[in-house]
């Protein structure tokens, strides 16, 4: 019989921890929550101080039965769920279910699953933190009051299966607002003038700045012509040379939001995938007997703190000094973290600097390796010395017309030897080296090129930029970003086009209703304030019932008003003007999860459905009969195919264009990347100049 029973959330974590603790400990998994509010009803008694009605989750009866059986045998029970609000609530529910003395020191928390961290945490167990429990319970009840009251109203007035949630509704509203900005955007013309200068055999680039030291915007072509008319004989005098040394500091180690953003930028991972793989790395990977068996490779991945343990800093410093040299070790850092961060947590970092990614490549899957490498390198770089850049800026004059040229080169790589942040990785100035120039020197302008530009609308949100905006504004918390993005897509309120969010008609209808009857639900400031109130509950500054009560008073009035005044919105089927090829009845446009689709009006007798095909104005290059149309894969990725499918099987991920290759007469396609669009031939090496 084991003396001690330890309960964690997942079997993977249970295996790792049991090996560290020894024979006297039995470690079992609760498989997440075992007790929760019922799915079939709201489960909150609004007449009785919002008392929650907790039940055993369906399908978890056997798990709870097994835990009770083991609990009876054990001398002592430790509850070791994750170190956050959710984990604290799981521990509290388990304490109730297993009749653990809640005043006892039964709660064990650890930020990393390593032998030392586990043993240390069991030396210092604590009581259940009821402030954390109350904060989680308040969030759960708030979400129930919103979701289980508004959703049935939407079913009745609009369509079955709709839902509304606090954070998810704000996220959809942000996506819709961005779409409106794009639609209402009016491009404005502006110009630039680029000059190619030459000194000896070296060429360098300069840009028009202004007249006599004053910056001058070029709004129209006539402004450009005025500048060109003033330039004489294309000889420019170097009027000023500025050389200086600039330090560039490394990025801080990852928090949840920055990890999701960087994984999207560098690895093309969705937020959900990032968190799933990070969970695997946290819970433990089998490194083989010689390397210590199952070992947790990163610290807890749901965090908004950038704090690093002193022991981890010291280990990183030793590793950097040994592998890169003493000059690469970073200066001592002041303690810094996000405002409102739960500083019991650390940043997301490797559990040991000695476990470099290359040494673990054979035991990790491809995706595990790539994410671990990202986390490892970001952490190591954060502990390294700043990069030092030699920068040079030059002013060049011709008859009062001023051009400027800048360049820089890396003098000392510092942290850049290991890692450069994704959105900083394409800074042109780092690749531009100017020739040695002296004040008073004359250089030739080999070419002066005016260029017309137009201002661009703000881009649609990607997962990375939406997470970044939510985090910046204080919407949600580390554990909510990935589920929120997943929910709004599953509900059909938004779709994806080239990995960017696009609102659906359904999403717009739902947000219009919420905006009219429940404006606070989609108000950013209100949602941010609510997150702050939940933090105050966690810090023991305010009682959770007061927060819920204040919210519900106004919310209930709005609910009653909406019940009385909201008219039913009938989403009518639009005639499509074509007949069903299966039964001859008229086809109609219907509203589905991902927007409109074609369906037979003779439903349910005929269940024929089709996607709405968007022609791109190109004849199929394979059969020469059909039209190329835009389609969506099962994962909502855009591709292009022939509308005569299955008779013609032409498909392409890249968009064909209405021109053929001048070399081989084959199909030309637009090859898009994050940085550029390039026209290429699918059959030969022909390519055209890129458009950035």
Fold and architecture overview:
The protein has 692 residues and is α+β, with helices and mostly antiparallel strands. Helix content is 34%, strand content 24%. It has 17 helices and 29 strands. Strands 8-9-15-14-11-16 form a 6-stranded antiparallel barrel. Strands 19-20-21-22 form a 4-stranded antiparallel beta sheet, with no helix packed on it. Helix 3 packs across helix 5 (130-157).
Give the topology, please.
Layout: E1 4-8, H1 11-21, E2 25-29, E3 35-36, E4 44-45, E5 51-52, E6 55-56, H2 61-73, E7 76-79, H3 85-97, H4 115-123, H5 130-157, H6 166-183, E8 189-199, E9 202-211, E10 214-215, H7 221-230, E11 235-248, H8 256-267, H9 271-283, E12 285-286, E13 294-295, H10 310-323, H11 357-360, H12 366-382, E14 387-398, E15 401-412, E16 442-454, H13 463-473, H14 481-490, E17 494-497, E18 500-503, H15 505-517, H16 524-538, H17 544-565, E19 574-579, E20 586-592, E21 595-600, E22 609-610, E23 614-619, E24 627-632, E25 638-642, E26 651-652, E27 655-660, E28 667-672, E29 677-681
Helix pairs in contact: 3-5, 5-16, 5-17, 6-14, 6-15, 8-12, 8-13, 9-12
